[in-house]
Every structure is written in structure tokens, then in C-alpha cells.
Amino acid sequence: MSAVERWRELLAGWGIPEEILARAPESPWGFPRDLMARRGRGAVELAPGLATRRALEALPEGGTVLDVGVGGGGSSLPLAHRAGRIVGVDASEAMLEAFRDAARGLSVEIETVLGEWPAVAPQVPPADVVVCHHVLYNVPDLEPFVRALDERARRRVVIEITWEHPLAWMNDLWRRFHGLERPDGPTAADAAEALSELGYPVRLERETRPPRASGFERREDAVALVRRRLCLPPERDPEIAEALGERLALRDGLWSAGPAEHEVAALWWDRAG
Fold this sequence. Notes:
Layout: H1 3-12, H2 18-23, H3 33-45, H4 50-58, E1 63-68, E2 83-90, H5 93-103, E3 109-114, E4 127-133, H6 142-151, E5 153-162, H7 171-178, H8 188-197, E6 203-209, H9 219-229, H10 237-244, E7 248-251, E8 254-257, E9 262-270
Parallel strand pairs: 1-2, 1-4, 2-3, 4-5
Antiparallel strand pairs: 5-9, 6-9, 7-8
Helix pairs in contact: 1-8, 3-5
């Protein structure tokens, strides 16, 4: 099995069984708009992480950035002090609104494009640096997605993902509430192997850092997000809070659920020619 096929097969294992989805009172996917806007604003204040530093290395003063899967702008707004223009692409209008909200007051031109990548790639002009953070685990078919990233980059492509699947920390909760075993992979190392197999001179680096500055003012909202992910009704919230234990915590004045720190990977390469 090729590395690209292995990536696709491992991701398929993260699907939620239909019988569980059918009982879900609301969609388990997506993030609240306000949460993503807070992430975008908060990222500007943080010390730049590894992926941000790699993007800055290749970004000229007043240069252009393309952010695919922009969310609240947490990957591209930390580049705003050097960039002249940031184009954010997302399939959700709510996320594009969060990005515009987070960018308000920054001295950089903002443009948004609504649509699925790579379908909307022909509508997007090339940029000096293309960034794509925390999207790849949603991309089983890597080749067309990454080819479109590469074709839109003049200088460098920078991808950031968690070292393990971003929902792997919830595996014990799926076992407890549904008796469902979740996969162990893929990992960022599998992504790097697949990208290399596709012909990209990818470099893989990793770092451990605290969670991004985001969360909820109310403890119950942090629990509710986990409950949605688990496809459970609101009356299970007390059980979920108990199961989370110390993973449900007040951090920087906001409630969030998840590990106290996590490993992230930067996968990047310079554009040929």
C-alpha cells in the first residue's frame, strides 16, 4: 500500500457510525463562530509558533498570504504585521465572518473567498506564502488538495497539523459513552511520508506548546462542545464533565476541554522555480 493510500485508509477509520449519527441531536462537526474569532485575535498576541516562523521566513515585506481553511485566521493573522494582503478561503461563511472580525483593526488588506478547496482554487490569485493549518486531517484525497496549494504559492507552502489526529485525546470518551474504539493514526509523520511520495520536498518539524488561546466564558459551553462531538444529548453533560476530569480546565480566564499541551507539526516546502 502506498503512503497516500495508507493516509486515506487511516482517515476513513475516523468516520462516525451511522447509527450514532442518526441519534445525534445536532451536528457533531464545526466550531462556534465566536470561538474561532477569539482564536484568531489571540494568535496575534502569542509568540510565533514554528509554522508561523517558517512562513515569516519566506514572506517579503508587504507580501501576500493565502490561508486555506482560514477559520478565525489563527494561522495567517500572526503574519499581518509583515503582509500587505491576506486572502482567506473557507467553506463556511460563519468562519469567514469570524476571520473578518478577528482582523478588524489590523493594518492589512483582507479578502475572503467562500468555497471548498481545491474547487475554488482557480478563483484565487497566487500568493507569496500559502498556509493551511489544522485542515489536512479532513482531507482523505491529498493529491489534488495539496497540488492546488503548491500551484498557488510563489515562495513557500506551510502546513500545520497536530502530531496525532486532533480528536485522538477523546478516544477514551468514545469508548466510555459508545463502546467504540477509535483509530491510532494517521499522524503527521504519515502526512509527511505521503507528501514526499507525491513529489514535494517536504520538511517535517515538531514542537510542543500550550493550547491556542481560545475557550468559553462558561464552563458548560466547553462541555457542550465535547458533547456535540460525541453525538450525545444535553442531559449527559454532567457525565461528560466528570469523564473529562482535569482536561476540563480554566485557562487564561476561559474554559476549554482537552490536553494541557499538545504536539504540533509544521510540514513545509519551498516552491520549485
